Amino acid sequence: MLSLKTLPQAIGRYYGITTPRRGWNAAKVITSYGLSNLFRRDIRFGRPMMLMVEPTNHCNLQCPLCPSGNGEMTRPRGIMPFEDFQRAFDPLADDLLLLLLWNQGEPFINRDLTRMVRHAASRNVPTITSTNVHYVRSDEEAEDIVTSGLSELILCLDGVDPETYVKYRVGGDFDRVLDGIDRITRAKRRLGTKGPLIHLQFIIMKHNEGQIESARDLARRFGVDRLSLKTAQVYTDDDVDEFLPSDPSLSRYDYQAEGLKTKARLKNTCRHLWYSTVINWDGSVSPCCFDKDVHYGLGQTLDGTDFDDVWTGERYTRFRNDILEDRAAVPICNNCSEGIKGLFYDIEDVTP
Question: What's the pTM value of the predicted model, to 2 decimals?
Answer without folding.
Answer: 0.94
